[in-house]
Structure formats: C-alpha cells, structure tokens
Amino acid sequence: MDTLNRLTIAISLGPDRARVFLRGELDLATAPFLHKQIDDLLDGNGQHRSLVLIDLAEVTFCDSSGLRALLEIHNRCQRVGTTVRLTNVPANIHRIFEITGITGVLNIDTNSGGG
C-alpha cells in the first residue's frame, strides 16, 4: 500500500489483472502519484495485465487534475492493450463524470455502485 498526503493506493494483483483501490482525494497534488503507480504496474516485471480495475469507492473528492489522470491512464492502457475499468464510483464523483462528459469515454462499471 502506498500513501501520499491525502490519497492511499492499494493494489491487488491477479494472474492477468490488477485491482487498484483508491482512498481519499484525487486532485492536483495526488494525481501524479496515481499516474506513477499505474505506470509502474503496467511496466512491472514484463507481465501483461489484460484488465486494470480502479475502485473509487473511497474517493471523497476528484478535481480536473484527477479527471485528467484517469483519462491519461485510460489512454495509456489502450496503447498497451489493457482494459481499464472504474468500479464502485460514488454518486458525487459519477456526477462529475457526467457533467464533464467523460462517461462516454471511460469504462465505468455502473453495476458496482454510484451510478
């Protein structure tokens, strides 16, 4: 588990997938930390991950820097042939996704909470 200021990241690895649990605020100060963790995950030990699930259940705040990080992670995963899916999106965060129009871009699991 890695922690930076107001964001905690825990990663659970499976044979071909990873689940990334976020807790706290995804903002200008913490978005680069998330980005680096995902980069390390995708680059790590040469093992291809076909799926990365990012669990947002405990995210309390997301600003435009957080949105940008999620979009960049989505694009990076697409380039390497990995699917990224957001799960357990809280209603307030999902509303931000809707307002900004990124619900049509990101893979959001609507059956796992929040919207």
Keywords:
Transcription Regulator spoIIAA, 5 strands, 3 helices, 115 residues, alpha/beta, five-stranded mixed β-sheet
Q: What low-confidence regions span 5 or more consecutive residues with pLDDT below 50?
A: none
Largest sheet, described in full? 5 strands, mixed
Sheet/helix structural class: alpha/beta
**Between the first and last Cα atoms, what is the distance in angstroms?**
27 Å
- Tally of separate helices: 3
Q: Strand-and-helix sequence, N→C?
A: EEEHEHEH
Reading off the top of the CATH hierarchy, the class is best stated as Alpha Beta
| Strand order in space, largest sheet | 1-2-3-4-5
Structural account:
- With 115 residues, this protein is α/β, with parallel strands linked by helices.
- It has a single domain (2-112), classed as STAS domain (Transcription Regulator spoIIAA, 2-Layer Sandwich).
- 34% of the residues lie in helices and 32% in strands.
- A five-stranded mixed sheet has the order 1-2-3-4-5, with helices on both faces.
- A hairpin with a 3-residue loop joins β2 (7-13) and β3.
- α1 (31-43) packs parallel to α2 (64-79).
- The chain is globular, with a radius of gyration of 13 Å.
- The termini are far apart.
